[in-house]
Amino acid sequence: MEMSRAPELVTQAWKLADIVGSEHIQILRMPDPEASPSKVMRLPYTDNGMELLALCSNAVHKLWKWEQSDKNPRGELSKSVPPVLWQPENGILMTNDITNGNNPEEATACTALSKDDSYLVSASGGRVSLFNMKTFKVMATFMAPPPAATFLAFYQQGNVIIIFIGTENSSIQLYHVQNLKLLDNKVVLKDHRIKITGLAFSHSKKVVVSSGADAQLCVWGLEDGKMVTSRYIRPPSNLSGALVGDTMVQFHYDEIHLLVVHESQLSIYDWQLECLCSWFPRDALPAPISSAVYSLGCLLVYAGFRDGAIGIFEAESLTLQCRIAPSAYIPSSISSNGETVYPTVVATHPWKPNQIAVGMSDGAVHVLEPLHTDDGQVESDASSE
């Protein structure tokens, strides 16, 4: 795709204001012969865009690969060449530690991939596991609860690799990785009052923003570990009292603007925590927000809702551009059984701005694209955090 035309092509791809039927969208349900009802908790793409990793609430990881072939030389989304659910040769699934006796279905699951897809850190209420993604073997386990990890993120600058771990007791712990070895943690950041639910880095501003389940945002200096500023997100006008619930954060690729996601709102802040604009569930999208992320290039925001709908917003102003109804992508056999199935997590493809993956509350994973798209591979540094 020509980068001069990229913004136009991205914003025009989802040109229908309301997508109700499957005839207006490309849908691929990821194959899973032994599907379980455990909901999908985390769903990162690998950096090359050819693998999709799901962490489910039963502490089990699933990995799908788009394999390159004559029919699909670039390993892209294709109904004629479906992805393969990868299985280890020894038959042992990549499962998080649950030896502390906690029920993983009730724990806060979290995972993060390193930039080069070499490492995965993951936890489901027990010890944090560091996996080698090439072999799927556990390299180390560490940080036995309490406190349990509730959010994980890699910070990488040159040869420096630091694992940031948000915990259920509101602290943020830092572990250094050097020469494939995990060193002792050296820094603990603490100002939140309850569990950490999000972390996002701005390399240019040399800060990390953390968010908590009490809707508090904090900005920390990356070099000295000192808190720069903090504030609570503003509740909608129709709500009284303080907000509670998981709050997620993601930096725009300019590393100045920050997407803040709470069930009550989508908001754009600057890195100093000044709110620039907000959108609150209403009209065609009245249900609480379950997950939201920037697209590649940060021109769009994709949001999942707890009634099964998906909203696509113009990122700068949070203007609703397109609504995807549950009937457009959730099989009628599932939606007709009386239970509401909804996206628990939304992920965007790392170089196709109009492709998203949604992990569902019933354990399914769907990949969605507009019916007609001219994404191509975007050669750009405009990838979000």
From TrEMBL:
Pfam families: WD40. The keyword Zinc does not apply. WD repeats lie at residues 189-230. The lineage of its organism: Eukaryota, Viridiplantae, Streptophyta, Embryophyta, Tracheophyta. This is Anaphase-promoting complex subunit 4 WD40 domain-containing protein. PANTHER family: OS05G0240200 PROTEIN (PTHR44083:SF49), TOPLESS-RELATED PROTEIN 1-RELATED (PTHR44083). Gene3D superfamilies: YVTN repeat-like/Quinoprotein amine dehydrogenase. It comes from the Eukaryota. InterPro entries: Topless_fam (IPR027728), WD40/YVTN_repeat-like_dom_sf (IPR015943), WD40_repeat_dom_sf (IPR036322), WD40_rpt (IPR001680). GO terms for biological process: regulation of DNA-templated transcription. Keywords: WD repeat.
